[in-house]
TrEMBL record:
Gene Ontology BP term (one): phosphatidic acid biosynthetic process
Keyword Transferase tagged: yes
Signal peptide per UniProt: none
This protein's record includes keyword Iron: no
Sequence ranges assigned to domain Phospholipid/glycerol acyltransferase in this UniProt record: 51-165
Any Pfam family hit: Acyltransferase
Keywords: Acyltransferase, Transferase
Protein name: 1-acyl-sn-glycerol-3-phosphate acyltransferase
Stored CDD domains: LPLAT_AGPAT-like
Listed InterPro entries: Plipid/glycerol_acylTrfase
GO molecular function, one term: 1-acylglycerol-3-phosphate O-acyltransferase activity
Length: 234
């Protein structure tokens, strides 16, 4: 991956040139290092109207890969933690995809309403429900923000299973990119069948229902992955 010093130079360029150069760099790295295998792409069109794409999260390359696959036809807004813009390297990725920033681990009502308005206006969004990259490759417990967004938008959800990007762009024990280096890797991206939230059962309280639905959402991702990636949702 590019060095932080080069990233800082690119970040001060005029926006037009910044986007052109950053996009060329990102696409060049993906083409050079990733052997992309895409399955189930045709499932996306089974969903009607604006879509919520959800995916497990392995590395900072995930957003760039998904943007490359989805931009031409579906052009989603990525829901991204504001801290991404604090690092010159990850800031490159955050700027070449369409993003809606949200404060992690907080009730960011303004961001939630912005997301809902975006979907109701007919735009697609993409969320990593775990809220952060997995340091082991195995899925971790999801945040409940996806429940609120799905309820308020009533949009169909398209699950995506990603494997191999943790080798393409690994992270170290602190959750940062390991030596900022890309590696050759086969990356498989599987698109599953669209779904909507199940109905509440008569004997469930809100807490029980939320827990059940969150597991249901995440298992729609997990079933697209090999066992070793399923982690919390095995």
């Amino acid at each position: 991956m590019i060095s932080k010093s080069l990233a800082k130079v690119i970040n001060v360029l005029p926006e037009k040139w910044f986007i052109i150069i950053a996009r060329k760099l990102a696409n060049g790295y993906i083409k050079r290092y990733a052997q992309l295998n895409v399955e189930g792409f045709e499932n996306i069109d089974k969903a009607k109207g604006a879509k919520i794409f959800i995916c497990n999260h392995l590395s900072n390359s995930d957003g760039l890969i998904l943007n490359k696959l989805l931009k031409e036809k579906y052009d989603p807004f990525f829901i991204a933690g504001v801290k991404l813009s604090n690092d010159p390297v990850t800031n490159l990725g955050a700027k070449i995809v369409k993003t809606i920033n949200i404060k992690p681990n907080s009730a960011d009502k303004d961001a939630i309403m912005n997301i809902v308005k975006t979907v109701r206006a007919g735009n697609n969004i993409l969320i990593f429900p775990e809220g952060t990259r997995s340091r082991t490759g195995a899925m971790i417990e999801a945040k409940k923000g996806i429940l609120l967004i799905a309820r308020l938008t009533k949009a169909e959800i398209v699950p995506i299973g990603m494997e191999g990007s943790e080798i393409l762009l690994p992270i170290n024990k602190d959750g940062d990119m390991a030596k900022e280096k890309w590696n050759n890797s086969k990356v498989t991206v599987k698109f599953g069948e669209p779904f909507t939230l199940p109905l509440k059962e008569t004997d469930e309280d809100k807490h029980q229902y939320d827990d059940r639905v969150l597991v249901y959402i995440m298992k729609n991702i997990a079933k697209l992955l090999p066992e070793k990636y399923r982690g919390f949702y095995s």
